[in-house]
Amino acid sequence: MPRIRENVNEAIRVREVRAVFPGGVVEVMPTQAAIRRAQELGLDLILVSPTAEPPVAKAMDYGQWQYEQKKKSHEAKKKQHIIQVKELKFRPNTDDHDYEFKKNHALRFLKEGNRVKAVVQFRGREIAHVDLGRNLLLRFSEDLKEAGAVEGQPKLEGRNCHVIISPLKDKEPAKEKPAPKEKKPAVVTLPSANPPQA
Asked: How far apart are CA 136 and CA 139, in angstroms?
């Protein structure tokens, strides 16, 4: 992460700041006075919220602040998932075993949240059979429709025909409420109107 020196001490260009000092002391004051007080405490004044009104500056150790910023940036990068385009290459006469093998790879890529680019390469006289390549890609797209959505029709570029498949957005299936259990009617035995004679 680049060093943001313009937001520290004398480089702060605003006239006054809402200064935050150790112990939770907050005070709106001229920037120069806030810098002096921070330096008396052996700290730097760092502009942490330049768009606030007035801007917020915090008295703290600049090295410590940089370390925390790097740590936050690192955590954010760890959490974000970068979508990649995984390419799978076919020939117009790809056999069934190879096709199934690549289809399983594509399913795994889509489940991981990546896009899949399926490419049929034509060599030499194979270019005369573009329809074989298109049909292969249409079959491939159809086989993956449960896991991915096709972005357009197969496209021919030079000696390659390709199609791109994107992962489907996760849709939480609506949870069905269990059907209420039927209550059996309670059997109540009523005393007989005519008690047995002794």
From this structure: 5
Q: Which domain holds residue 112?
A: 85-167
Q: What is the pLDDT of residues 118-172, one digit of tens each?
A: 999 988 888 888 888 889 989 998 898 888 888 888 888 888 889 999 988 754 4
Do 92 and 159 fall within a single domain? yes
What integer pLDDT is reported at residue 124 of this predicted model? 85
> In whole numbers, what is the pLDDT of the chain averaged over residues?
81
**Exposure string (b/e) for 51-61, b if CB count within 10 Å is 16 or more?**
eeeebbbbbbe
Number of H helices and E strands in the chain, helices first, is 4, 8
Indicate the pLDDT class of residue 174, thresholds 50, 70 and 90: very low
Tokens linked to 159: 């000696």
89 lies in the same domain as 161: yes
Asked whether 147 and 109 are in contact (CB, 8 A), the reply is no
Residue 191 lies in a domain: no
Provide the number of structural domains found in the chain: 2
Number of neighbouring beta carbons within 10 Å of residue 106: 22
The pair of three-digit structure tokens given for residue 118, joined into one six-digit string: 């399926």
Residue 106 lies in a domain: yes
CA distance 137 to 126: 16
Q: Given a cut of 60, is residue 15 above it in pLDDT?
A: yes
Looking at the fold, whether 112 and 52 belong to one and the same domain comes out as no
